[in-house]
Amino acid sequence: MGLQPALLAGLEGLAIDRPTAVQRLAIPALRRGRSALCAAETGSGKTLAYLLPLLDRLLSRPEEPAVEAAAGPASPRGLVVLPSRELAAQVGAVAAALCRPAGLQVRGLTGGGAAGGLRRQLRAPPPGAAVLLGTPGALREALRRRFLALERLHWMVLDEVDTLMDDSFVELLEEILAYVPLAAGAPEPAGPGEVRMQVVVVGATFPAGLSKALGKFTDVGRFITLTTQSLHRLPPHIQQKFVRLKGRDKLPELLQLLKEHPVSGGSVLIFCNSASTVNWLGYILDDHKIKHMRLQGQMSAAARAGIFASFQKGDVSVLVCTDLASRGLDTSSVQLVVNYDFPDTLRDYLHRVGRVGRVGSKAPGAVVSFVTHRWDVDLVRKIETAARKRTGLPGMDSSINEPSSKGG
Question: In sequence order, which ranges of 227-317 are alpha helices (DSSP H)?
Answer without folding.
Answer: 250-260, 275-287, 301-313
